[in-house]
Specification:
Strand order of the largest sheet: 2-1-3-4
CATH class of the largest domain: Alpha Beta
Helix content: 25-40%
CATH architecture of the largest domain: 3-Layer(aba) Sandwich
Order of helices and strands: EHEHEHEHHEHEEHEHEHEHEHEH
Radius of gyration: 21 Å
Length: about 375
């Protein structure tokens, strides 16, 4: 039986980092919370998951508990994700069947004055990782783009935005010789720019898929009805640039308000306008995209594509009547933790002044609640 046709069996492993994480959040409460998440069949907390004994414990539990998806709640995926991937491969899983929730650098080490809010954020970040891995399927090529040729109309947009020439268009005999896109997985670098640019939703990725990110967005807003959760802010962070600076901010113990949740992407060009619209429609009070500084993108021009696409989206949202400050794009390089902290904190301060999102997805809207310019006196 394939993984696609059976119920997921998710195992969650929580690291205390020798007690460092416990100083800011309640790991016992976090473990209890995780046990109730959908498809989680096993939860285990350890002092050090990165220690060889911790790795061995993960491999042992994968076999003993018949786990097919793993979430590691610990430090940054930039540090030990490859080691954890090797561990689950040793236990017989595909290396893509794991996700790391960064509850150390980007939760415990930047939010240390309010244990309640910090623990709640840790719960959400782990829940988001669970939602992501629940929708993950194994793939031998790693994180690459692929094409649903039934949806592909051969427009060539994906080919035009691919900076590594991994996409070609040619007549396909299986589709009456109509032009279809094909991705060379050996050439694809997994930036995802082609996926977010595709006008027919024919493109997707094996990791950071649309389904996975939309599931994360839904989880990130699970406390929307709780007044104490305001502001509910979603931050899309580039793995190579702003996410690295976020980790540095944690290492330097640079304090931040905990009322935001982070979705990591390999490049800001992967951020799909659909995600932003979904987040706003679901009640997010603000959405911040943190791209790399133009000219210093890991994928050369990914952030330039982000700037063009998101500028247009900002204009659309403004036409719908939303205050333009609810959705912003900022630029943070990989060695700018101070810029990262300032960008996030300034954005949260603006959202606090604006107030909650005028859309309440669980209620019928009255026209007066929507920020339409012509209703303002």
């Amino acid at each position: 039986m394939s993984l696609e046709s059976k119920e997921p069996r998710v195992g969650v492993f929580i690291c205390r980092c020798g007690g460092q994480i416990d100083l800011s959040l309640d790991t016992k409460r976090l473990a209890s919370f995780v046990e109730d998440e959908e498809d989680v069949v096993f939860t285990h907390t350890m002092p050090y998951l990165c220690h060889p004994s911790g790795m061995d414990e993960i491999a042992k539990r994968i076999e003993g508990e018949r786990l097919d998806r793993i979430v590691v709640a610990a430090c940054s995926p930039r540090l030990y994700q490859s080691a954890f991937q090797e561990t689950i491969e040793r236990a017989g899983l595909n290396r893509l069947m794991i996700d790391m929730a960064n509850i150390r650098e980007q939760v415990a080490w930047v939010h240390f004055r309010d244990p309640e809010a910090t623990t709640r954020k840790a719960e959400d970040m782990v829940a988001m990782s669970i939602a992501k891995v629940r929708n993950q399927l194994p793939d031998e090529h790693g994180n690459v783009s692929f094409v649903n040729k039934k949806r592909c109309v051969g427009c060539g947009v994906c080919e035009s935005v691919c900076n590594v020439n991994a996409i070609t268009l040619a007549s396909d005999p299986e589709f009456d010789d109509k032009r279809k896109a094909t991705v060379n997985p050996k050439a694809c670098v997994g930036c995802g720019a082609c996926v977010s640019a595709c006008p027919t939703a024919a493109m997707d990725q094996t990791f950071f898929s649309n389904k996975q990110v939309l599931a994360q967005i839904e989880k990130s807003l699970s406390h929307k009805e709780d007044d104490s959760s305001f502001p509910n802010i979603l931050v899309f962070s580039c793995h190579w640039c702003s996410y690295t600076s976020a980790d540095q901010a944690g290492l330097m113990r640079m304090e931040l308000d905990p009322h935001f949740r982070t979705v990591r992407t390999m490049c800001s060009a992967r951020v799909d306008p659909e995600w932003v619209l979904k987040a706003i429609a679901s009640g997010a009070d603000g959405i911040l995209v943190l791209a790399g500084v133009p000219g210093r993108c890991h994928y050369e021009i990914g952030n330039l594509r982000t700037r063009k696409r998101m500028t247009l989206l900002q204009m659309v949202l403004k036409q719908y009547g939303f205050d333009e400050n609810r959705f912003q794009v900022k630029y943070v390089d990989s060695d700018q933790p101070d810029v990262y902290v300032r960008s996030v904190q300034d954005f949260m301060d603006k959202i606090k002044l604006l107030g909650p999102n005028p859309i309440e997805p669980t209620t019928i809207l009255e026209s007066q609640r929507v920020e339409l310019p012509y209703l303002k006196l």
